[in-house]
Queue: 2 jobs
Job 1
Amino acid sequence: MIPNYEDKYGADAVFSPTEVVGMGREGLPEVPPAVILGYQPKLTAYVEPRADSPVDIVRSQQLYPVSETVGYVPVHEWGTGAPISAMVTENCIAAGAEAVLLLGGAAGLQTDIPPDAAILPTGVIRDEGVSYHYIPEEVAVTPTASLVDGLDDALSDGGFDTFRGRTWTTSAFYRETVPEISAYGDDGVVTLDMESAAIWAVCQYRGVDTATVHELGGVLTPEEWQPELQQDQGVTEMFDPVVAGLENHLADP
């Protein structure tokens, strides 16, 4: 059972993200109200030349402002998965972020989704550990519906076919088993990742908006893993529509 200590949810933490982000400086860093978390070097290589000088968040964690409204954090430079994603999300929120979005690759669990599609998860199977330290098991962890709608519109306007459905977040990369993949695929789950549940749970706990946009980083079926897909567009082409969707979302009253 996670968390092991059953009375955790009403308890205070020993220290807060605001304290950590504020260590060794006067005040907190200024970050844009929307933050995109990136997990692929190819996306970072696309964003960095177009961004302003990076802002130091905590230690080596940096944010690249791409507009007055949106910044980009290359999470992959410190790791991947639920724990590091939750910490980076907490740090960004402590510095002032009002919306945090994951833009990255995921394994597809449906064989009929085109490889160039943009996938917007609308729910999650919580199979990691972090989210349960924020949100109890009986409470659904979800993205912000209005943000998902706006991103869908922006990506569609940008020429992407969009698909929605649940994602499966797990931390056990080498224990994605045949019966699980078969059951979740049959149940219509669209993608598998290692971060969404944790990011959404942190955002839900802290009261900020959140969403995920996936490109297909291969297809996983009970018979095989197909890690390579022929794609003409992916996260780099999704970036500008995602920025537009975030800007429009924050501009709405």
Note: The chain has a mean pLDDT of 95.
Job 2
Amino acid sequence: MFIKKLIVKVVIPVSFLIVAVVGLAYLMTESTRTKRVEINVQEINVDMGAAALARGEDVYLTRGCADCHDLDAGGKTFINEPPIGHYAGTNLTTGSGGVATKYKTAKDWNQAIRYGLDPSGRPLMFMPSHEFHPLSVKDTAALIAYLMSRPAVNRTNPASMPGPMARVLYLFGQFPMLFPYQHVDATQAQAEDVPMAATVEYGQYLATGCVGCHGQNYTGGRIPGVPPDWPPAADITSKGVMGQYGLADFKLLMRTGKTFSGKTVDPKYMPWTGMSRLKDVEIEALFNFLRSR
């Protein structure tokens, strides 16, 4: 009798509530995934010269593009955890399975990179456009030039699809990386160029690529949307681990992944392999900014 009452009063209502929440989460995420967003994206002039292409390659590697789109820009699966979902970086080339043929203008690329929307206006999942939006006009153009110059890669990647946990987390505002376009401040003015120098200002410009894991305040914690076995991101302010680093140690970390204590950081969790391409002046700028926090 007690079991029957428990089932009627607790199990059945809770089950209905769970089904309702999951159903609502599914409808909300599908509505967002398939909607079309209209925005005004500025035209951008692209220089295909050698200097611009070299800078574009640096931006591609140091800003973490290869972590999802692979070194050859052909894309790859970077998360495959059924509760969270399956997420694969798009093949950005003109090869079979690639999307470059749909990106007919530099404006289309700009819309994807800085606003998180494909050429038709559909939201791109896991595209950290809120981190790329502050890119200067010069660096954006260089990155676009580099992508346009990539040779064709014939690779068809599985379509990205959120899992039930990701959908529910998004419903409750706990999965911002699912549709990052919603976190772009479209009113933010775009700088024409940010001069490369060992300054706090240039370090802050570079550190926008760190907020996805380390947070807006760089104090770390659990990373939204990643598999549950991932470690929390470190506090990289002067009150956290950066308080233990001198410039020489920090350069060693950026170049080799070795911490001041001699441990090697797993590049799966901290993409130092791409950041090793940073120039000395850039590493010093990043160091100066993080130590100022």
Note: The longest strand covers residues 77-81.
